[in-house]
Amino acid sequence: MTATEIAACVRGERSQLFEHFGLFYRDIPEYVAGVTAFVRSALAAGQPVLVAVPGPNLELVRRAMGPEAGLLRLADMAAAGRNPRRIIGTVLLAFAAAHEGRRVAIVGEPIWPGRTPMEYPACLAHEALINEVFEGRDASILCPYDASGLDDAALVDATRTHPWLTDGASTWASHSYCQPLETVAAANLPLPAPPAYATEISYHDQHDLAAVRRFVAHRGLAGGLTSDQIADLTLAVNEITANTVEHTTGSGRLTVWREDGAFICQVDDDGRLTDPLAGYLPTSIDAHRGRGLALVNQLCDLVRLHTRPDGTTIRVQVAMPDGGGRTVEFTHGRAVAG
Amino acid sequence: MADVATVDQLGLGDHGCWTFDDDREQVGVRLAGEADLSNRQALLALLGQLLDETAAKGIQVVVDLTEVTFFDAAAARALVRARTASRGRLWLKGASAGVARMLWLQGAGEVDDSAYRWPSA
C-alpha cells in the first residue's frame, strides 16, 4: 500500500480501497472471533460475503454464524483452491465479478498446515499476486493463518504479503509488507530433478504433439489414473507443449512419473515466460493468447513454474485416484484429500 | 441432412470439398481426427469459408463432431467463436464427452446450450 493510500485510510476513505488483511489465530475461539467479526461488519454494510476456507474451518464459520450463514457464499478452499494458481481467477475474481459495482468481502484461507512443500511456493505467490490483481478494486479480503500449526517461515511470509495484519481485536499496518512482484520472484524456485525412474519424450514441432498426447495417455493408464484424469492431463500437457512449439524456437522435453500419491508431468523448454500473471486471470473468448495456462490451472491439482532467462520448467500434477494416502491436516481437525 | 463433407484429419487434403446448392437450407461438414496446432489454420479457414459462403442465403451449417477424438483449446474456441459469429446458423452435433468438456471449458455454455442440438427446422 502506498503512502497516499495509507493517508486515505487515515482520513476514513478506506472503503474505497482494496484491503488485504492477514489474521493470525492460535485456536478455535480466536478463529471464530476474527472471522465472524469481519463477516458481520461486511454484512452490516450490505456487502456480499464469500467465505472460502478449508472444510473443517468452513464448518466452524457455518456453526458460529447460525441462521446468518445462509447470507454467505461458502466454498471449501481445500477443493476450490487445491491448485493455488486458480484461486484468484475462479474463486476471488469470479465472486467479485458476480457482484460487479458492489464492494465485496472475502475470507480466503489458502494456506493451512497440510499444504505440502511443493504446494507452498505457489500459495505464497498467490497471496502476493492478490495485491497486484485487486489493486484499485472495491474489495476486502481477510486471510486467516493458523499461528499454532504453521511454521514460522509461513507466518513471516504472511507479513510480507498482507499490507494489514489483525488479531481480531486490533489492526495494524505490516511493516514487513513487500512489493508483490518481489515476493513472486522469491517464490520462483528451481524444481527438484525428476527421479531416475521417470520416463521422458522429446518433441520438436507441431507434428509431434499427437505423440506427446499418446505418451501421456499411455503412461497415465499404466500409472493408474482414471480415464477422466487422463483426458484432463492430456489436454493440459497438450496446451503446454503446443506453447513450446508456437512461442519458442527450440524443442521441448516432457518427463512423467509417479511420486507421493501424485502423477506428475514436467515440461522443460527454452522459452522465457515473463508475465507473472500468466494463467491467473480469466480471459475473454476472443483472446488468442494467455488462455493456455489458465486452462492448465483448471485441469490440474497443482501447477508449479520455474522461469529462468534461458528456459522455463512447468510441472503439473494430479492426485492419484486412491489418494496415495495423503491427508490434509489441520490443527483442529482432519480432512482426507482424495 | 444436406451434403456432408468429411474433412479427414480436420482439413488436411480434403479441405473445402463440400458442395451445396443455393436452394439448400442446410449444409453439413463432418470433422474427423484430432484438432491441434498442426491443423489449426486449416480448421479456422474451413469454418470461415463455411460461414462466408452460407451467409448470404442464411443457410444453416451443421458441424458433425462424432469422429473427432481430440480438440485442443484453440479448436474449441474457434468453434465457439464461429457459433457466435454465425448468429445462430452454426450447429454442433455429436461431440464426445471429452470434446464437449473442452467446448464447455472454452465457454460454449456461455454462448448457448442449444448449440449442441440439431436445428428443429
Strand content of chain B: 15-25%
* Assembly category: heterodimer
The mean pLDDT of chain A is 90
C-alpha end-to-end distance of chain B = 11 Å
Roughly how much helix do the residues of chain A carry, as a percent range? 25-40%
The biggest sheet of chain A amounts to: 7 strands, mixed
Number of strands of chain A: 14
Biggest interface and its residues per chain? A-B, 20 and 19 residues
What is the global morphology of chain A? elongated
Question: Helices and strands of chain B, in N-to-C order?
Answer: EEHEHEHH
Instruction: Give a quick account of the main beta sheet of chain B: strands, pairing sense, barrel closure.
Output: 4 strands, parallel
H/E series of chain A: HEHEHEHHEHEHEEHEHHEEHEEEE
| Arithmetic mean of pLDDT of chain B | 74
Helical amount among residues of chain B, as a percent range?
25-40%
Strand content of chain A: 15-25%
Q: Would you tell me the structural class of the helices and strands of chain A? A: alpha/beta
Strand order of the largest sheet of chain B: 1-2-3-4
Furnish the topology, listing elements before pairings:
The complex is a heterodimer of chains A (338) and B (121).
Chain A: H1 3-10, E1 19-25, H2 28-44, E2 49-53, H3 55-65, E3 73-76, H4 77-80, H5 87-98, E4 104-108, H6 120-134, E5 139-146, H7 152-161, E6 164-166, E7 171-173, H8 180-186, E8 199-203, H9 209-223, H10 227-247, E9 252-259, E10 262-269, H11 291-299, E11 302-308, E12 311-319, E13 327-330, E14 333-336
Parallel strand pairs in A: 1-5, 1-6, 2-3, 2-4, 4-5
Antiparallel strand pairs in A: 6-7, 8-9, 9-10, 10-12, 11-12, 13-14
Chain B: E1 4-7, E2 26-35, H1 40-55, E3 60-71, H2 73-85, E4 90-93, H3 97-105, H4 108-111
